[in-house]
Amino acid sequence: MPLLNIFGQLENFIADDLYPYRYVITPLLLIAAAALVYVAYSKGIHLTLLRHKLATTLIGVPVLILAIVAGNYLLSPLWERSHLEETSPLAVTDAAPDSGESAAAEPAQAPSGPATGASDASFEARIVQAGQFMGSDDFHFGRGDAQLIETAPGTYTLRFENFSVRNGPDLYVYLSQDPSGENVDEALNLGSLKATDGAFNYEIPAEFDISTVKSAVVWCKQFSVLFAHAELQ
Question: Is the separation of the CB atoms in 120 and 153 below 8 Å?
Answer without folding.
Answer: yes
